[in-house]
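Need tokens for this chain, all 304 residues.
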Amino acid sequence: MSGEDEIVRDAKAMREVLARYRVASGGDFELDAYATDDLPDGMPHKTEAKALLAQGTARLAELQELLYANRTWSLLVVLQAMDAGGKDSTIAHVMSGVNPQGVSVVPFKAPGPHELAHGFLWRVGRVVPARGMIGIFNRSHYEDVLVARVHEDRLPSTGLPPELIGGKHFWEHRLEDIAAFERYLERQGTRIVKIFLNVGRDEQKERFLKRLEEPEKTWKFDAADLAERKLWPAYRAAYQAAIAATATKSAPWYVVPADRKWFARLVVAEAIIAALEDLELKPPAVPKDHAAQLAKAREQLLKD
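Here are the structure tokens for all 304 residues:
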């Protein structure tokens, strides 16, 4: 491949690449088995990936229009990553071609007092995408089994009754609740795609340094990120447990190698495309009486 204009998206080949990172059952899942810099044979060069992504986003736009027109299913994309994993830029690039009226992006920050007065899934249920819509969670309900698990000493401040905090099965039960919630959403017509942008520790270091050294990126740096970086093994263990406990055929995880942002974006785009294509949506049928109205309107316009 010698130029961007010669690149043609091969849907079948991209499905095969996607399967490489798909986790539909957590029984034997091992996070360390997924390299953060993985790049399958036959992938285009970085300079050629731009054209390939453009074709993917064009296909995504077509599928979004069908989703919106049918108003039967909705799609929820859960996006998780370590700090500097590339979540924001992935959203910006992958969703660049869709109609913004059909997409909502919800960033999940630390819960406030009103949110802490409810169960941890309460704030999530309020922002699940409506039928016909694509919803993207930039961080999500999984923060409550990731950050909360790594910083378990903060649990008393959540307002939970003391007798319900901790214990042998606390995190197991919370993961069961998440899995049950996602089954409920699926049964109500929300297809779920969960993405873990799997960035390496060395790559995270380079991205932090870039934020410090490049004036236009310094606003992204937070000193607290360095404290969290020291807890890298604990976060990896929390992700391992979360993915293993909640990966299912209907709500799979994709452990996407994120050291190369351009490649991660291709994989994320394909994961969303695959989820929408699997719904096998068709343009809504036009009722007979409405078809007659359309024919009459056309006739009137031609006479105008």
